[in-house]
């Protein structure tokens, strides 16, 4: 099973410090509920003293969330700790997270305090917080640029004062995996009572190593990972939760770590955050980017169609996606093209397939992505060359909101007019039933869509129908400024396609 890692999510605190990622009360509550579904261990709900809004959010989240520890950040100041407690005290499992910087740079220029003053203050504030709450996390801000001997001494004292979690942040994303491993090992070896506290890490991504550093820390003894959804956070962000969790999940063999996160909630969490903040992840973002489970090149598409694991190290389902994506573009090959045609309900002969594939490649040279609609146009254009067994001559519809719709349809086959009439559930249904009487083919309507393909009052409507016949799906489309006529044409084009493709 491996070593258990607690996931501390700070999307609502450090994540929110990301420019453009502010969330209001309702949005934070919604996000917190999703984090609970994701099964993180700790939700850092905010920095209670930062504003009335932040205080309210932490308090409401504390009241709402039942299955996670809820924490608030607090500087090493009594007023911050009072405020944090006032907000988290409603939680089933409250935590006060207090911090102070320990690097020479921060102590000298920012805090304007001597190391001994910082140490004394840290100890006093942990004791102060402990009067309120059992679970106290202490963070040494800018730990990775701090003197490890000083840090170990300070940690020893704050653990004596009651800290239950010791956090070692790489505040400015400065460290590297090997260095961070050594650093934590040194801290562990030099902090006598370290076994009385949990070791946590909090890595920033300034050099793009936040996730790697976080994972390296586990080997040295860290058992809590601090991270955010989509890796949002101050500057270049925090370690991305989805990357950490899926690395543990996918590389159990070498990492030997596990956590409680329900990975199938990852995509939903990522999308919810993007929707709330309006900040979308880059397409090639690991795990949750639009392209993370998309394949465009022919060789890869062929491989994946034959055996998914050729180019996918995780299943899309494992993060809550229904399936992978085959993007058709100029790098795609015949295998993927044929596969898409089948999905769209086209069953072409080898000759037809080769012709359509050539046209597809020509189009793909001009367009970045060839969409299903483009393919349908190629195929339909070719299909128009199919002999039309039945042609629409005329139709009359009687419809209204107080009468049952009726349709009378006249089709031409072999220069002969055939007429049928039918009632139906609306004008389109009545017309379809009249045609069905004429053509005598057993069809099941699987899908019917109408949309305008041009703009303005005289817009052409396009009807697309998908019909099931003998277990196969056939697609037909019709264009007209009259939507009933477009529907009839779409239906007829399906009928003609079936008759052509199933001809002896
Ligand atoms: C590494 C991190 O991510 S830390 C968290 C960063 N997040 C935030 O800062 C977001 C929320 N912050 C805020 O809303 C505000 O900064 C507040 C409410 C916390 C403080 O606001 P202000 O009182 O206006 O102070 P301001 O932000 O300008 O400066 C910070 C003050 O806190 C002090 N300070 C900074 N960290 C700590 C600490 N851990 N413990 C005690 N004091 C601290 C600074 O020395 C400075 O003190 P000074 O006002 O006596 O010079
Ligand atoms: C307060 C601490 C945990 C922090 O956010 C950092 O050091 O980056």
Offer a concise description of the structure.
41% of the residues lie in helices and 21% in strands.
Structural key phrases:
metal-binding, Double Stranded RNA Binding Domain, amino-acid biosynthesis, 3 domains, Recoverin, domain 1, binds 3-methyl-2-oxobutanoic acid, 21% strand, alpha/beta, TIM Barrel
How would you portray this structure in words?
The protein is an alpha/beta fold and 504 residues long. It is built from 17 helices and 18 strands. Strands 2-3-4-5-6-7-8-9 form an eight-stranded parallel barrel, surrounded by seven helices. Strands 13-14-15 form a three-stranded antiparallel β-sheet. Strands 16-17-18 form a three-stranded antiparallel β-sheet. Helix 1 runs parallel beside helix 2. The site of 3-methyl-2-oxobutanoic acid has 9 residues, from strand 6 and strand 7. This is 2-isopropylmalate synthase. Pathway: Amino-acid biosynthesis; L-leucine biosynthesis; L-leucine from 3-methyl-2-oxobutanoate: step 1/4.
């Amino acid at each position: 099973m491996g070593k258990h890692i607690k996931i501390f999510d700070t999307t609502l605190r450090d994540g929110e410090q990301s420019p453009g990622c502010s969330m209001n009360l309702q949005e934070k509550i919604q996000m917190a509920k999703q984090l609970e579904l994701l099964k993180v261990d700790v939700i850092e709900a905010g920095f209670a003293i930062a504003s009335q809004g932040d205080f309210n959010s932490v308090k409401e989240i504390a009241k709402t969330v039942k299955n996670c520890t809820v924490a608030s950040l607090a500087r090493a100041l009594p007023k911050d700790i009072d405020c944090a407690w006032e907000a988290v005290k409603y939680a089933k499992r409250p935590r006060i997270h207090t911090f102070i910087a320990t690097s020479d740079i921060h102590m000298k220029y920012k805090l304007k305090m001597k190391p001994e003053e910082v140490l004394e203050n840290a100890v006093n504030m942990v004791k102060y917080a402990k009067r309120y709450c059992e679970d106290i996390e202490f963070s040494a801000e800018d730990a990775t640029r701090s003197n490890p001997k000083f840090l170990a001494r300070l940690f020893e004292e704050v653990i004596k004062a009651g800290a239950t979690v010791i956090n070692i942040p790489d505040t400015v994303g400065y460290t590297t995996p090997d260095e961070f491993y050594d650093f934590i090992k040194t801290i562990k070896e030099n902090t006598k009572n370290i076994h009385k506290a949990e070791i946590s890490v909090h890595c920033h991504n300034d050099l793009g190593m936040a996730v790697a550093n976080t994972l390296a820390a586990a080997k040295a003894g860290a058992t809590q990972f601090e991270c955010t959804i989509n890796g949002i956070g101050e500057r270049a962000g925090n370690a991305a939760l989805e990357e950490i969790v899926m690395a543990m999940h996918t590389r159990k063999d070498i990492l030997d770590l596990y956590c409680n996160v329900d990975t199938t909630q990852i995509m939903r969490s990522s999308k919810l955050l993007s929707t709330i903040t309006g900040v979308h992840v880059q397409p090639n973002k690991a795990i949750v980017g639009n392209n993370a489970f998309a394949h465009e090149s022919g060789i890869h598409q062929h491989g994946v169609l034959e055996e998914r694991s050729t180019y996918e190290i995780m299943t899309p389902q494992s993060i809550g996606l229904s399936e992978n994506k085959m993007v058709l573009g100029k790098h795609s090959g015949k295998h993927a093209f044929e596969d898409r045609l089948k999905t769209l309900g086209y069953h072409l002969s080898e000759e037809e397939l080769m012709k359509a594939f050539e046209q597809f490649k020509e189009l793909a040279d001009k367009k970045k992505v060839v969409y299903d609609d483009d393919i349908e146009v190629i195929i339909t254009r070719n299909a128009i060359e199919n002999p039309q067994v039945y042609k629409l001559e005329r139709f009359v519809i009687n419809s209204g909101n107080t009468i049952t719709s009726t349709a009378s349809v006249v089709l031409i086959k072999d220069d002969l007019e055939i007429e049928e009439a039918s009632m139906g559930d609306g004008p389109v249904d009545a017309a379809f039933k009249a045609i069905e009487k004429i053509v005598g083919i057993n069809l099941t309507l699987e899908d019917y869509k109408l949309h305008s393909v041009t703009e303005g009052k005289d817009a052409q409507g396009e009807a697309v129908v998908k019909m099931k016949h003998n277990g196969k799906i056939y697609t037909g489309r019709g264009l007209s400024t009259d939507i009933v006529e477009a529907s009839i044409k779409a239906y007829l084009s399906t009928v003609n396609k079936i008759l052509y493709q199933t001809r002896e």
